[in-house]
Design a protein that fits this description.
- The protein is mainly alpha-helical and 197 residues long.
- It has twelve helices and no strands.
- Helix 6 packs antiparallel against helix 12.
Length: 197
């Protein structure tokens, strides 16, 4: 009897989450809108089309500091991050680890963007549009990471996190060679390991 009642309880929990996520499906762009944007003659037309959808808020919030492709990239990333957080908030506890592992892709993406940006000496304004705060690293944590002046400071700031433990041992080699590839490869291996577990 306990097995049966636990099964019903689990099904009800997942049914609620499933219903909430399916309701979010209404915010997806319809095929006709995507086709219209694909035929657009300019990026301005694409932005105008998106401005009449659920992306309007993200475009408006970002348009004071960014324009063109950077604005599009930032708005899409913010929208996705908000959707990912919403899915996590309605997911049952037994599904969260799997979802967080899948969303870990965005932590790795963000760290690679930050490392590359610092390595190449880009200002924060040119790095920010490519950050997608959809993983476990919060927007505030990503901002603090972005504020680090260089690769070494960024890696040391990660400290005892799982990412710091991966990257700190590679700092000496980086300082001697200025080759960022081992760090980027280490993050990729970590991601694939998470996804396969």
């Amino acid at each position: 009897m306990t097995y049966f009642s636990n099964t019903i309880s689990n099904a009800a929990t997942f049914a609620y989450s499933n219903a909430r996520v399916k309701a979010m499906k209404a915010l997806l762009l319809p095929r006709a809108s995507l086709e219209q944007m694909a035929k657009a003659g300019s990026l301005a037309e694409v932005l105008d089309s998106l401005g009449r959808t659920s992306y309007k808020q993200d475009l408006a919030e970002s348009s004071l500091r960014y324009s063109g492709a950077d604005l599009l990239e930032l708005a899409l990333g913010r929208n996705f991050a908000r959707s990912a957080r919403r899915v996590l908030s309605v997911s049952p506890p037994q599904a969260r680890d799997t979802l967080l592992n899948l969303l870990g892709k965005w932590d790795v993406h963000n760290l690679k963007i930050l490392l590359l940006g610092k390595h190449l000496g880009h200002p924060n304004e040119s790095i920010a549009p490519f950050i997608v705060p959809a993983g476990q690293l919060t927007p505030a944590e990503l901002k603090r990471l972005m504020d680090q002046p260089d690769v070494e400071s960024l890696v040391r700031f990660l400290g005892r996190t799982e990412y710091g433990q991966l990257l700190i041992p590679l700092l000496d080699a980086y300082s001697k060679s200025s080759n960022l590839e081992p760090m980027l490869a280490s993050l990729d291996r970590h991601l694939y390991g998470m996804l396969s577990s």
